[in-house]
Design a protein that fits this description.
single chain, about 400 residues, alpha/beta, 8 helices, 24 strands, transmembrane, transmembrane helix, membrane, PilX N-terminal
Length: about 400
């Protein structure tokens, strides 16, 4: 009897051990299930976290681009240093000042939060996902770097990612000066005004800034200043080799084509590179980049044609620039006559003519001119279209999970 009772005691103890072991397994399984569920939920929102971080990049880059446009520093290091000074360590007060200065007012009104660690921007409420900026740093050669941190932290679910952003303040000349024209013009692209053997004539009391050259006589009527000086002989370079100035229709005017105007004609015929054939501005669709005219071109220019490049085999006559600050480039085997109303200005581009160029009116021109014939300016003064290279923020992104 005693042996039987002992055996029953062992069975009871063994059963309790099995129950405890089973309980441990069950609890562990439940905990693991909960963890896996949280991990799965976290992974489910990974794309949303990336979207939140990219929204932060978008907002910040809008401000940085505006910062780069308004400030005129001489190198990328200066831009990086001043940007870091402006944002400090991304605390709330410094970001408030920075974003109020460089973000459009409409964005200020719609932002939920600011973007600092103490005041993050809420990207989504359910689940709650937010982002903020951190760790600003100036690396070598003027590269600004920082982290954009996006996080979901709610209901025991924690998920986050960091995106490292590097902003390289790259040297770039005005986007309104077509790079293919700079290549075709060669060293003459550096001139604000370059006149051929017939010379340069200016009428009116205006100022001319930049590199000015002439292969012929200089006629400056009135008290015009060249680079702030009345000593025009010193300020205007005599182009002794003006006969080598590139002709837009010659076989040497472009390194890849048989003449610049001819290459554009081929593109128009083939329907390539968005070049269309047209000889009057009223028939050009807004947003057109290049037009080719096999003859004389005419018509007013409005802001819907901003950054347009007119390529013609004949003369180009623009009676009116309708809007302020339009950028326009003209390449022609003939002459150019351009009228700008006194209250308007031409803010970019280049005029390249095999014949003469005559500009009338306008308070200010910021256009490069290269003419194998004479250049005559009646009215407006001139600034170098690219007085200094501007520094454009170029974005590089690395995800750090």
């Amino acid at each position: 009897m005693q042996g039987k009772e002992t055996q029953q005691g062992y069975v009871l103890a063994f059963s309790l051990i099995l129950l405890a072991f089973a309980s441990i397994i069950l609890i562990s399984a439940l905990e693991r299930t909960g963890i896996e569920k949280r991990i799965a939920t976290s992974e489910l929102h990974r794309a949303t976290l990336e979207a939140a971080a990219e929204a932060g990049i978008h907002d910040f880059m809008i401000a940085v681009r505006e910062f780069s446009v308004r400030n005129k520093y001489t190198d990328g290091d200066a831009y990086c240093t001043e940007l870091k000074k402006g944002i400090g360590d991304f605390d709330t007060d410094e970001l408030t000042v920075f974003f109020n200065e460089y973000l459009p007012s409409g964005m200020q009104e719609t932002r939920m939060g600011l973007g600092s660690k103490d005041e993050p921007v809420v990207f989504m409420e359910e689940p709650r996902i937010f982002w903020y900026l951190s760790k600003p740093n100036c690396e070598e050669e003027g590269v600004f770097s920082m982290l954009i941190h996006a996080e979901q932290n709610e209901r025991h679910i924690v998920s986050s990612l960091n995106i490292k952003v590097s902003i390289d303040f790259a040297r770039e000349y005005s986007a309104s000066f077509p790079p293919e024209l700079e290549e075709a013009l060669g060293r003459f692209a550096d001139y604000t005004l370059a006149a051929g053997g017939a010379g340069f004539t200016a009428n009116g009391q205006r100022e001319y800034h930049g590199k000015v050259g002439s292969g012929g006589p200089l006629i400056l009527n009135g008290s015009s200043l060249v680079n702030g000086s009345t000593n025009h002989e010193e300020q205007i370079e005599q182009i002794s080799d003006w006969v080598t100035m590139p002709h837009p229709g010659s076989s040497t005017s472009h390194t890849h084509f048989t003449g610049f105007t001819d290459s554009i004609r081929v593109y128009a015929a083939q329907g390539k590179r968005g070049v269309i054939e047209q000889c009057h501005s009223s028939d050009i669709p807004p947003g057109t980049r290049y037009i080719y005219c096999p003859g004389n071109f005419g018509g007013d220019i409005h802001d819907g044609l901003n950054n347009l490049v007119i390529v013609a085999t004949g003369n180009v006559n623009v009676p009116k620039i309708v809007n302020e600050g339009v950028s326009l480039s003209i390449v022609t085997n003939g002459n150019v006559t351009l009228d700008v109303e006194p209250a308007r200005s031409l803010s970019g581009g280049v005029i390249w003519a095999a014949g003469t160029v005559t500009l009338n009116g306008g308070p200010q021109f910021e256009t490069g001119i290269v003419a194998l014939g004479s250049i005559t300016i009646n009215g407006g003064g001139f600034n170098n279209p690219r007085p200094d290279p501007r520094f454009v923020p170029v974005l590089h992104i690395d995800f750090e999970y």
